[in-house]
Amino acid sequence: MSAEYTTFGLAPATRTGGVLAGGAYQVHRDFLDFIVDGRPLLFRLSDLDAVSPLASDVPPAIFTAQVRGLLLEAEPPLPGGRYIIYGCPECEDLACGAVTAVIRRDGDDYVWQDFAWQTDPHADLRLNGYQGIGPFRFPGAEYRAALSALLRQGPGTPRRRVLLIGARVAVLAKLAAALRTIDIGADITPDLAGASAEELREYGAVAFGAAVPEQDRAAVRAAFTEAGADVAYVDILAPIVPVLVAQIEHALDRTPAERRRLTRLTATGEAADIEVTSPCRVRLTAYRLDRLHRTHTREVFDGVLEPGAHRVFLDTAAVKGRSCLVARASESVLVAAVAHGKPG
Q1: Same domain, residue pair 119 and 31
Q2: How many CA atoms within 13 Å lie on the side-chain side of 115?
Q3: CB 282 within 8 A of CB 301
Q4: Which of 50, 117, 119, 209 has the fewest CB atoms within 10 Å, i.e. is most exposed?
Q5: What is the per-residue pLDDT for 1?
């Protein structure tokens, strides 16, 4: 099959971390995704939890080696001229699985072809090839310009620190511990007394506990504005750590709306309404507090959704009382408090 010309670019992307049902943790990763014909290439893979080799947390020497590999200035890491396009977000083990492709030069152009899923050094296109993805032909000048810029600029360092403000120190301490486990820094403070502008600019989000008065919130916002820090503000929905982690992950995600898969989540005691922009696996988890403030967790949906709006009917027992829903795709997360009433 001959490859038709298409555009190539790079854009920041996030694999959201989180505390999953059962207590497992999912690590937060920031990376650069490949933008092919104006869309993230990862969106063509509906059920894949993976990151590109261009992650912000890899050592500079490894990051540079990955870029040079994509420019074909280094030997391919796998037989047959194959390069890893997406790999496991938790480790670098090929045994976990990776999306690979042959990258070759054709005149001044670069061609990506023969995409496959690999768990060992040799690809089997008949069994594990991705049908309908590629080949892609990228104009050489555009391709080299996008990747060569990274050799000058590096991966960049997203602000992944969060400031937690509230009266319930025990809840905030548990939240901070969970955030640090998934590689997000977190600090707890009652106010911003003595904080310098340089210190405030290190934060990407601020989370307010429910008991923080509006005048104190306004003072915090004013301090960040004066410091020239563009941060996201989070109003804590419920003292449930997995829900709070999901809220903060959503706040830290600065991906443009047109490049997000999950775009809307609302919920009542009867149904959840979800909207997605491309085929993807969505997991929907319900969290509720009972009268003794104990947390109850239930997975209420796990499946691949096609682009558009979807309604998932809920077991009312799973969301009775004070409850929240967390919708999670591989690279994004949404949180909604359950409003008890009939869906619109």
Answers
A1: yes
A2: 16
A3: yes
A4: 119
A5: 46
Average of pLDDT values for 185-201?
86
Helix (H, G, I), strand (E, B) or coil at 22: coil
Tell me how far apart the alpha carbons of residues 217 and 258 are, in angstroms, rounded to a whole number.
30
Q: Give backbone dihedrals phi and psi of 306, rounded to 5 degrees, phi first.
A: -85, 165
Whole-angstrom distance, CA of residue 84 vs CA of residue 101: 7
Compare 291 and 71 and report the one with higher pLDDT: 71
211 and 94 within one domain: no
**Based on the structure, what is the number of domains in the chain?**
3
Radius of gyration, alpha carbons of the chain: 22
Domain span at residue 306 reads 258-344
CA distances for 188 relative to 27, 79, 160, 164, 247, angstroms: 21, 49, 15, 5, 17
128 in the same domain as 239: no
pLDDT averaged over the chain?
89
pLDDT digits (tens, 9 = 90+) for 210-246: 888 999 999 999 999 999 988 999 998 888 999 999 9
Q: 254, 274, 309: which is the final residue of a domain?
A: 254
Residue 296 has pLDDT above 60, yes or no: yes
The reply to whether 205 and 285 lie within a common domain is no
User: Do 125 and 50 share a structural domain?
Assistant: yes
Reported as type and span, the H/E element at residue 313 is strand 308-313
Domain check: are 16 and 126 in the same one?
yes
Same domain, 52 and 96: yes
pTM (predicted TM-score): 0.81
First to last CA, the chain: 48
* Between residues 3 and 98, the one the model is more confident about: 98
Sign of CA dihedral 300, 303, 307, 310: negative
User: What three-state secondary structure class fits 116?
Assistant: strand
Question: Whole-angstrom Cα distance, residue 19 to residue 25?
Answer: 5
